[in-house]
Amino acid sequence: MKSRALQVAAHPRGEVGPEHFEVVPVELPDPDQLAAGSVLVRNTWTSVDPGMRLRLRPAAPDGYFTAFDLHAPMDGILTIGEVVASRADGFAPGDVVWHSLGWREHAVVRAGESAMNGVGTLRVLDPGDAPHQHFLGPLGPMGLTAYAGLAVVDGLSGGRVLWVSAAAGAVGSLVVQIARNLGHRVVASAGSDEKVAWLRDDLGVAAFNHRSEPLGEALARLAPEGIDLYFDNVGGEHLEAALDAMAMHGRIALCGSISDYESEPTGPRNIFLATAKHLTLSGFRGSLHLDLLEEMQERVAGWIRDGRLVAPETVYDGLEQAPRAMADMLAGRTTGKTLVRLG
Ligand SMILES: NC(=O)c1ccc[n+]([C@@H]2O[C@H](COP(=O)([O-])OP(=O)(O)OC[C@H]3O[C@@H](n4cnc5c(N)ncnc54)[C@H](OP(=O)(O)O)[C@@H]3O)[C@@H](O)[C@H]2O)c1
Which of 66, 183, 209, 210 is deepest in the core (most CB within 10 A)? Predict the structure, then answer.
């Protein structure tokens, strides 16, 4: 059987583009000759995540998922697929599965082998009526990250003023809706008037465009009493503005700092405000909160059924589109979860 995979051809400096990747042919094992304990999967959906940009460097940040090797399979990317053949107990042809061998059309996955802190370990899904790709979005790692960040920062309570940045993106749009459903007053920021209109008119929260209004002015306008909680997807100037706008005893969930991923880090320069205001800043990884996965899936699936949570997505068709999808996502040209449909 023949298949195809994407590999990293060169480390990007600055903005990533299709020229940094190569599509290579892959020879698959005959299904009858799979190694014991292995499963052959036809991948159907694969993920595009900002954190992958940090792994397109010679070395990824200490403690994070490892860098992708040049000219080698890109392991550690969450992916959905269908089992074609199996020599592992608990996996049968036709099963819908979740695993971590993405950016390729087929994968041979070893059952039971831990991947991505356990979040990417091969598992059978029970999608019911849910679109399968929801397990890369609201019912998967994005939901887990949003839910875990809110748990870390405020124990999933409600009634506070919460700012979330990159709020029309995969994680941000879930944070907005989960926080709103929990009873927080949400202030959301995004980088286009279209995204802001969607946040305000469809999701019903206060919203502003960070590209057309200074952050400090927008926060003073929409949260004059100060911010109790900040869910930081952006870092840099956004985190600096949050430190300025936080109320006493505020709490910040450090989810990511996408403004730094393709350029030099820019701050924050006012970190003493964390001391002065007795703030708590908590870095966290969704993948290190697997204990919350089932609880999150139950609650989020309920909200989807009740019409209280929507999961927008921007879909690119075909393996060769994945690099363009990544460039578009990093530049803010996508809304909701960015996905590649493989077939
Ligand atoms: N801690 C974890 O476990 C974990 C897990 C998943 C993701 N993350 C982090 O969560 C964040 C969001 O990830 P995602 O998958 O949901 O991506 P996403 O929000 O769907 O896409 C990225 C968005 O970031 C915004 N952006 C890009 N450059 C920016 C800049 N210089 N200033 C302000 N905004 C910028 C753009 O939105 P606008 O058009 O609105 O500017 C873009 O749409 C990232 O930092 C990611 O690394 C963390």
Answer: 210
Work out how many domains the chain is built from and give that number. 2
Supply φ then ψ for residue 269, to 5 degrees.
-100, 0
Q: How far is the CA of 288 from the centre of ligand 1 (A)?
A: 19
pLDDT in tens, 185-224: 999 999 999 999 999 999 999 999 999 999 999 999 999 9
The answer to whether residue 269 sits within a structural domain is yes
Is 241 in contact with 210 (CB distance < 8 Å)? Answer: no
Do the Cβ atoms of 241 and 215 come closer than 8 Å?
yes
CB 16 within 8 A of CB 56: yes
Residue 302 lies in a domain: no
Ramachandran angles phi, psi of 300, nearest 5°:
-65, -40
Q: What is the mean pLDDT of the chain?
A: 97
Q: Whose CA is nearest to atom 40 of ligand 1?
A: 190
User: Where in the sequence is the domain holding 258, given as residue range(s)?
Assistant: 141-287
Q: Are residues 9 and 130 in the same domain?
A: yes
Q: Per the domain annotation, does 299 fall within a domain?
A: no
Q: Is residue 179 part of a domain?
A: yes
Asked whether the beta carbons of 78 and 102 are under 8 A apart, the reply is yes
